[in-house]
Every structure is written in C-alpha cells, then in structure tokens.
Amino acid sequence: xxxxxxxxxxxxxxxxxxxxxxxxxxxxxxxxxxxxxxxxxxxxxxxxxxxxxxxxxxxxxxxxxxxxxxxxxxxxxxxxxxxxxxxxxxxxxxxxxxxxxxxxxxxxxxxxxxxxxxxxxxxxxxxxxxxxxxxxxxxxxxxxxxxxxxxxxxxxxxxxxxxxxxxxxxxxxxxxxxxxxxxxxxxxxxxxxxxxxxxxxxxxxxxxxxxxxxxxxxxxxxxxxxxxxxxxxxxxxxxxxxxxxxxxxxxxxxxxxxxxxxxxxxxxxxxxxxxxxxxxxxxxxxxxxxxxxxxxxxxxxxxxxxxxxxxxxxxxxxxxxxxxxxxxxxxxxxxxxxxxxxxxxxxxxxxxxxxxxxxxxxxxxxxxxxxxxxxxxxxxxxxxxxxxxxxxxxxxxxxxxxxxxxxxxxxxxxxxxxxxxxxxxxxxxxxxxxx
Length: 435
Fold this sequence. Notes:
- This protein is an alpha+beta fold.
- It is 27% helix and 22% strand.
- It folds into three domains: 4-21 and 233-433, 2-enoyl-CoA Hydratase, Chain A, domain 1 (Alpha-Beta Complex), CATH 3.90.226.10; 50-122, no CATH class; 144-230, PDZ domain (Pdz3 Domain), CATH 2.30.42.
C-alpha cells in the first residue's frame, strides 16, 4: 500500500457531503423497510359510471388515455356486476360502504385493479403500494419502529428471508438467510404478497410472531417464535485481529455508510496491516451510490462498477469509479458473501471480484439483478416498478442464482451449533497464505 500519511489524508479529504445522488438498490420488500404514503380522502361514488369513478378516484383526468386496441369492457362489466349482485358472505357490523376494503368501496376496488395490473407482469419486485403502507413507511424512515428486524422477498413464488439484521429479534431467535417462510402464526403464506407479509410479521414491542420455516438441509419445517422489539439498524463494525488481519463487517448501504466505510479504511491503513476481510454476509443492500463510492477506493478512475440496462426504454446508465484508488498490489483482500448478500452487496463484491481486487468466499449471493423506482400514482399511492437490470463490469446481468464465490464454503448445521464460522476461517486461511 502507499504511504500511510498520504492515504489517511486522502481518506480525510473525501467528504461524505460530496452531494451524492443516493439511489436505492435495496430489496424494497422488507419487514424493517416498507414503502408507502399517508392515506388521503376517499373519493368517488358507486352511483357514478365505473370509468368516471376510476378517473375521479385516481385523479388522472385526461392525462392518461386508455391505450388503443385494448378492450376495457370486461372491467366495467365486472364492476357493474359487483355493484348489482354482490352480497358479503358475513353480516358486517357497519355498512359495506363505510369499510375501506369493502367490495362496494370504489377506492378499494381501484387499488385492487392497479395491484392486479402490477401483478400481471409476474415480477415480485414490481408492486403497487396503496395507502395502507403509509404508516409503516413513515415509521421506518423516522428510524423508530418495532418489529422483528429482517428483510424478506418472494423467491420462486415462496416468501423467503433475505437476511436477519445482526442482533435483531429474528437474528437472536435463529432465523437465517434463505429460510422459506411457509406459515405466519399458522396462516399459510402461499400466494402472499410482501406487503401482506410485512403487515402480519410486524407488530408492537413485546408481542410474539410464530414463523414456520423450511431450511435447506433440515428435513422437517422449523417453528421459530420471535418476540418483536424496537429495531436498531447497525451499519459497520471493525476489528484488528491478533493475526494482523483487519475485518470490516458492513451490514447495509445506508446514507451514512459511505462515510463510515471511509473511516474504517482509515483505521485499516493506520493499523499497518495489508490484509483485509470485508464481510458482506446478510447485507441486503441499500444505496447504489454508496456501493459506487466504496468501490472507488479500490479502482482507478473511470473503471465500470455497474451498468443500469434499460433494455431500449432509455439510454443505459454506466456508473464508474471516482478513482480514489488508494491501494496498490500489496493489498490482500477477501470478501465474504452468502445468500443474504443482495443488491448493492452484489454490485460491490461483483466489481471487486471482476477486477481481481478481492476473492469471494462463502456461498452464492441472493441474485438481485434488477433496478426499481418508486413512481407516484396518486398523492397517496405509489408503484414500485422494475425499470432496469444490473450489469456487472463484464456486461453480464447479476444472475438470478446469485454471484458465485471463488471459494465456496457452506456451513453445516453442526458448524452452526458449535458456533464455528467456517467461512471466516477460510477467508483467514486464504489471506494468511497470500504472498
């Protein structure tokens, strides 16, 4: 590595406040991060014509005309049939029209139409977010919320744990990345949406949620009881081991992670070590710009970190290294990944693997190879939609099965019971043998 004083100065001079355009790469479907907006007033009336109700409820006016060649008459026919014939199977204590989810409520029916439209593209990351998610979202962005502290996604049509947060209730209860949740409090999760799952799993501090999970390598489903608590999201931890290897554990790519990572690299340099382990296990991602910023410490200016491929919808966006490039060939680096390493974790580890900066150790990553944007539909609702694909510096999409590590190390149940971190041990072994 270069002169320690020079490197420390470089790390000090690069300010976190450089005005990054923080674009999220996060999974976007989390028990601890859900997206929505506060609900507005219900508009419309069942006595109006269906099309007029939709226009009134959505507030679209004549901005968006129906696409040519599409027959919407089945929608309006179904709408009128519901108005004319539907009888609720149970007698409600209040009128159906007063219920925000009643079949005769035009607002709820429009939300259902848009939700079905989003579902028709068969992409688990493209979802409609009605007002019901607003309270959860506002709790999350305030940093003060209660739940179990894990991120979930739909994988192969199954509700799957991306990763539990370190020291969160789910982590302490034994939930693991890759666990497939088949029941929530004895309710079957087949066909469940992320938003519905979030609502069932979250809850007040001190309450318990029971998860039935299927785990690879375990014959029978496991029942895990998780006591909800206030969630504190960790970001980074560092350690200089007695063998001289410096370890950085990065738990997410948040708005503050770039600065914290820079400080960690300063610690690493000032320690005098040239052997670095970056632990990205269980890191579900976060801001794209944080991943690009971190990669820039290791790559020359202009090197491609990741490309957003818009498939001819618009021009691709290429994200390149800012060229801090403070390390030279004396750096020995290993990145540890697992099935909980997703999105921005895959961008950073994939780039450093591609350029030969670091070897990857562990198991395949999650395989989050797409980009989502949050688009406002009404002042109270949004559509989270896949708009592009992530391409590695080599031009290939991050595969659905995840990035394959250079050295595969898969912990056994016995390793877990004995609290034996075989992936870390392998990373240490590799670094110790590097010359």
